[in-house]
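Lay summary. Proteins are chains of building blocks that fold into shapes, and those shapes determine what they do. In this project we predict the shape from the chain. Here is one chain we studied, written as its sequence of building blocks.
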Amino acid sequence: MTFIKRAGALAGALALAGCAGMGGNSDSTGMQMPGKTPADAAVAATWYNPPSEFPGICLTQLKDGSLRFDGGFAFFNPGRWTYDAATSELRLQLAPTPSLELSHAQTVLHKNLLRVEATKNTLVYAVKADTQAIGLGGFVFYRDTPCPARRG
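And here is the predicted shape, written in a compact code that computers can read:
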């Protein structure tokens, strides 16, 4: 039953994602994340959900404040991110998705998820230098795990 609910939410999100967009500035703010510095100068952080019953999914935070999903969750693109070092909060603002609040309502099930700001399509996580993973959409994304090269 859970799979059917997720599949239904995914189908609805995919239908809306084609029409949805998010604004944002395109300046290079050079935003930083705590922890390891990625080899790519344009990347602030990567999170990877390795393949299991589904293909691997990569979440890449770029230093210009944009974020991108590859290999899955493309309906969350385009996205934006910010990090508040004073509160250790990572905010992921995702493309409008009607099921965001419903699918993340049980924050205890999503590793390090503090809250969902549904009106802003934003997930807020507790992330410090030693944070190893976050949970998103029922999947665990591991920090600093290399993402495979993008295809196409």
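What the prediction tells us: Helices lie at 2-17, 100-103.
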